Amino acid sequence: MDGDGASSTGATPSEEMNGTGNLMDFLDEPFPDVSTYEDFHTIDWLREKSRDTDRHRKITTKSKESYWELIKSLLDAWSGWVVMLLIGMLTGTLAGVIDLAVDWMTDLKEGVCLSAFYYSHEQCCWTSNETTFDDRDKCPQWQKWAELMTGHSEGAGAYVLNYFLYVLWALLFSFLAVSLVRVFAPYACGSGIPEIKTILSGFIIRGYLGKWTLLIKTVTLVLAVSSGLSLGKEGPLVHVACCCGNLFCSLFSKYSKNEGKRREVSYYFPLKTLWRSFFAALVAAFTLRAINPFGNSRLVLFYVEYHTPWYMAELVPFILLGVFGGLWGTLFIRGNIAWCRRRKTTLLGKYPVLEVIVITGITAVLAFPNPYTRRSTSELISELFNDCGALESSQLCDYVNNPNMSRPVDDIPDRPAGPGVYSALWQLALALIFKIVITIFTFGMKIPSGLFIPSMAVGAIAGRIVGIAVEQMAYHHHDWIIFKNWCRPGADCVTPGLYAMVGAAACLGGVTRMTVSLVVIMFELTGGLEYIVPLMAAAVTSKWVADAFGKEGIYESHIQLNGYPYLDVRDEFTHRTLATDVMRPRRSEPPLAVLTQDSTTVEDVETLIKDTDYNGFPVVVSRESERLIGFVQRRELTVAIKTARQKQDGVVSSSVVYFTEDNPQVAEACDPQPLKLRRILNLSPFTVTDHTPMETVVDIFRKLGLRQCLVTRSGRLLGIITKKDVLRHMAQMMNQDPESIMFN
Fold it and tell me: Can you give the residue ranges of the CBS domain (predicted)?
């Protein structure tokens, strides 16, 4: 928009003389920045969709005018695929780098590789020619800190020194993480999934997907996970991936100027978005495969390969694990939300650095003595999922072997547990209690913190304990009726690692309330496709049990805690209320702020904008008739008046604002020039009658992503219902505090 005068707008001489042509044509052009929304407000999905349709129509029309315009239209059509390619490459690269960095820094708490300090323990011993298979975790190139400093690797002194340095490293990592978040990117804390879900639903949080947030979240995620806190990196990686998407979307005006276009994955999911998502995932997988962060040439984090099928009788312990997962999910959500609420309402929230340091100190001090809590949570889960073969050296595989056994290594029969297994069971029981308690206080601190891995760890520990118990019962009591039909003496009947995998799925489902997607995630993490029935049984049972105590998962609970305006598609509204019960203004409130189509001055509009904080204003024929004409957005109105005052002569405070289709006539030469703003008027705002059931209104808001709708009776404006009004009404109907919904 240049506004250079009549010569550029095609005004006739008569229009130039009366001073209206230049003004009208100028204001009929799109205004700068009118698509921008205020921070912590909801976008208008229908408006954004309409704007994108208009943009596409113009591009299609221009493409027929010249080859250059045709090329530009093709580039516009391919921009979505280019964005997906870039997102996939950057996301895969960051995921691989984060995995490698976490492995190295986690091992750095215990020792260092002398041949290459940037090698993790496993990488260091891979490169050693002096490592034997029996002692594959020990090699001369890797030394613990006590051995490096004092020359002694055994004894009380070495243990105390290693203990002290382990805690010191953990405190250093967590302090760096919380400090970087607090100083440079406050939005880099937490999981990010509750905010991402809210943003995708149309909410604006400026800076949450910005460049600084991407950089700081990537760095601090490595520090937080390496500190040994009971948190994971999978949830924050979703935030990182969304930051990558926002970064590349800003390079293309097709997405940067349309908030709805950047969010085509929430209220509706077009087929083209499905294909592009698949393409982005494919590129990310290829990139991750090239980096090979797991060192096994596979794309899954916990690859499993069991050699024994599961039996129908095992569904009983699988379902019991599902019950445990549901109970754990309920306990965690209630405990964590109570702690986070206390953090928000007490002095605890004013000292986030101190809280992180204290929780890290407690975690490190209690974790070090137990080998199952000292190691990284990913390594723990991997060991718990593992099937005991003939070459395994883990304590969990310390069974009493039959010297006369002559079977292939892949088909080892069930054996009596040895002393190492019983010792491991006690340590796992203590680790289970520790993980259950400490995770409640860890999730939600002012550092990047995911929940997938800690939840899976709790379930995997419980599942492995149950699996070993069932295995030993089957061995010692194979004549029982429950084992007689499928477990013969000397057979390999029970796989404890499978129970760990099922338990992990159950606990993750209890916390997140996922079912189908959870089973798919477990396939992705383990590659165990043939165990779909046990996983589904545990996931469904977990959800049923958890839903009996509350419908919300952990992410929905945090959305409610923070007061975000999120309408969950799973929420059902069955109350018999009407639109007139929810609309504003109420009887005790002042009348609705409206604009008239041809009798409001610029000064009146500016005063209305100054005295109110509404997102927009209905436009009516007159205040007497209240006949609805349309709806105008607050920001568009502000920008339009500001632009007209700066660029056009004759627009003053007493100028009349017109929303009519016909050009206003200036009665006398001395009268101020009128201001026509029909261009920014939405002539088809969504309306409902005052007797529309709220069940229908809620469904409309949810499926169309409305920002607000107007309530009318026979064309006469009665009131307005915003998304906040809907959410507050739903909260009130569920006996919750309606004031907890804080944002528009």
Answer: 583-647, 681-739
